[in-house]
Amino acid sequence: MIDLALLPLYITTVIALLLIPGPDMLLIASSSLSYGKKVGLYASLGNATSGLLLTLLAAMGVSALIAMNPMALQLLRILGGAYLLKMGWDCMRAGPIDAPEVAQDNNLAKILYRRAVFSNLLNPKALLFFVLFLPQFVSAELTASSGEQMLALGLLLNVMGLLFNLLLVGMVGSLGKPLLKNKKFRANQNKFMGLIFFTLAIWLLASQVQTMS
């Protein structure tokens, strides 16, 4: 359900887009650095889950309808920014005693999974990406419908994105091992993640201000 003539260009474009730093990369890298590879893995899976949901919405045409409504996009930006601010505040409130032994802590991994899912779903740029990017590679030469082609393109995008993020987790997680053994860092790792979430919130809300101006 993908035009083979367009496939090399599509794969090249996706790789180029994956290499551009963005909120998802920042969240996954910082999670891996602060809490270890396991938490980074769950954050990557959360990102992939939201990507699959956005792919389904794009294939069904729902995301296009939302993207055409400026009020809906503004609401998404505000909700997304508010959610990220809450996550940052929760991390800031967590004291050193709450910093877990990450190698055995399943709860933290699940929390970062959920946060990655919702932070991406509430990012209107991700929604617009699926609405504007995938249709560029829908071919009239195929018998498959545009929805079927967008579904196939989105699935390939998500597989490539997950593989890239897993590679990122492995690299950053290995670099972060010495930090996880540092008592001073462990005592402040929740505050570090809080700053990351505040940064993501400002990033998202700033795009809202630029759009309105």
From TrEMBL:
Instruction: Provide the membrane topology annotation.
Output: Multi-pass membrane protein
**Which spans are transmembrane here?**
52-76, 117-138, 150-172, 192-210
Q: Mostly located where?
A: membrane
**In this record, what's one Pfam family?**
LysE
Q: Where in the cell is it found?
A: Cell membrane
Q: Which UniProt keywords apply?
A: Cell membrane, Membrane, Transmembrane, Transmembrane helix
Signal sequence, start to end = none
Asked if the keyword ATP-binding belongs to this entry, the reply reads no
Q: What is the official name of this protein in its record?
A: LysE family translocator
